[in-house]
Amino acid sequence: MGSYSTSEVLNAAAVGVHHPALRSHELDLKGSMSGEELPTTSGLENGHQAPFVIGVAGGASSGKSTVCKMIIDQLCDQRVVVVTQESFYYGLSDEELVHVHDYNFDHPDAFDTDLLLSCMEKLKHGKAVDIPSYDFKTHKSVLSARKVNPSDVIILEGILLFHDSRVRDLMNMKIFVDTDADVRLTRRIRRDTIEKGRDIIDVLDQYSKFVKTAFEDFILPTKKYADIIIPRGADNSVAIDLIVQHIRTKLGQNDLCKIHPNLYVIQTTYQIRGMHTIIRDAATTTHDFIFYADRLIRLVVEHGLGHLPFREKQVITPTGSVYTGVDFSKSLCGISVIRSGESMENALRACCKGIKIGKILIHREGDDGKQLIYHNLPKDIAKRHVLLLDPILGTGNSAVQAISLLLEKRVQEANIIFLNLISAPQGVHVVSKRFPRVKIVTSEIELGLNDDFRVIPGMGEFGDRYFGTDDYQSSTPFFADDKNRVGLL
Ligand SMILES: Nc1ncnc2c1ncn2[C@@H]1O[C@H](COP(=O)(O)OP(=O)(O)O)[C@@H](O)[C@H]1O
Ligand SMILES: Nc1ccn([C@@H]2O[C@H](COP(=O)(O)O)[C@@H](O)[C@H]2O)c(=O)n1
Ligand SMILES: [Mg+2]
């Protein structure tokens, strides 16, 4: 296989695997959110399971980062975050810097393990943390930290991760990357001279003075703690496939879709995650927000239509052959929850020519949570399948109100398909418990709700961002389609 640069691997890993929305918050500590924690609530408190923690250890340049990248690539539909042990290197004092060639970077004492433990403790409890950034050129921790958010899977990677039993105890799975010493040395020489700009003589000196001995004294003895040993590192795709399968099985036990068979999360791809990254980014312009939200909405709508009943239908193709296909139900309508649900109407109209679209307005009155509902629904709605449109399923309150109204109007519960872009697990529980036959189709499941009952990580006030009425946008407001915002049936 081709060679990867470590920075490429880690960058790709970070970009590819963090929850898209969360990346935007990985701010420089000097930035406006300096030192603040994201308003994330505990995953555990929110009914989420603790993350699955994978430890990846092995000699320097054995291929740990490359193996992590391969695991992450295959887990593309999960929220995965990588934390490297090297982020926790103690910075060198000025005096130590003068004698840097005598410093042993491969000794367990070179790492601030207490800090690593406290960061991991927070992550495991569903809290965001600032992970220090380490500069291999200056041998110091740099000021800007990396904001890391809680995830389904945390991969901890580093040469001495299995040395301290407290760190080992954090892990659900321990992997040791076992690569021959000559291969590790060759890769190290290439990496340290090319990527770190070091002198080859210094690299060889450091290797014979510290790296080789530390491997034998501290790293190799920890191999016995591994659950899985991967010979040949990233070249061992069979081992990596098996690891990914195992992780999937473990994660699947907590899968919301398994608990709620009425929930459908569309199959994710990097395109979809990329689009989510854009629309969740607070800095995205209204124009881009509309463009990418529309693309995602279209996918959700298409998926939702796939749940409508159909009959077999045969047609004759231009080649005179018979094609056996299906004819789907035409007796349907869309109902949008004003105002953000109206953003989904265009996609529905584009997929179902001439479809009737009704509206529901849910109004929160005062603090007592009393809600008034105004509606404009097709008269024969009871006979129709209903595609209920609202981009965000948060607490589930609005959805329950809207669905209750539809049932009052004698729509069959099983004929309702609720389409949204993101769903909080709480909302899914509430809707599914009350209306188990309503299908929920979404494109991503969120971490949960914060203390203000806002979806986290979320994407802000969808209606304001889509219709350009938010006040934090720097760009000129851009209205997608004004007439859709006011016109009722
Ligand atoms: N299977 C492989 N084949 C070829 N080059 C590899 C392979 N695995 C890793 N490398 C290269 O070796 C170097 C060290 O790999 P890396 O994954 O960064 O190791 P570690 O994280 O264990 O130090 C990198 O330059 C990487 O691109
Ligand atoms: N300032 C430093 C800090 C560490 N190293 C070497 O990095 C190796 C660990 O990184 P891997 O990606 O290979 O796990 C380790 O062998 C240290 O010697 C360094 O050279 N300079
Ligand atoms: Mg590495």
List its salient traits.
disordered N terminus, alpha/beta, 489 residues, Rossmann fold, binds adenosine-5'-diphosphate, 7-stranded mixed β-sheet, binds magnesium ion, 2 domains, binds ligand L45E5XJ5
Characterise this structure.
The chain has 489 residues and is of the alpha/beta class. The strands form six sheets. Strands 8-18-16-14-11-12-13 form a seven-stranded mixed β-sheet, sandwiched between helices. The protein folds into two domains: 6-251, P-loop containing nucleotide triphosphate hydrolases (Rossmann fold), CATH 3.40.50; 257-486, Rossmann fold, CATH 3.40.50. Mean pLDDT is 84; it is low at 1-48 and 472-489. The chain has helices spanning 6-17, 20-23, 64-74, 94-98, 113-124, 165-168, 181-195, 200-219, 237-252, 256-259, 270-280, 286-305, 345-351, 397-408, 425-434, 462-467, 482-486, and strands spanning 52-58, 80-84, 129-135, 140-148, 153-157, 173-178, 228-231, 263-265, 310-316, 322-328, 332-338, 356-365, 370-376, 385-389, 392-393, 416-419, 422-423, 439-442, 444-445, 448-449, 455-456. Helix 1 runs parallel beside helix 3 and helix 11 (270-280) crosses helix 12. Magnesium ion is lined by residues 6, 64-65.
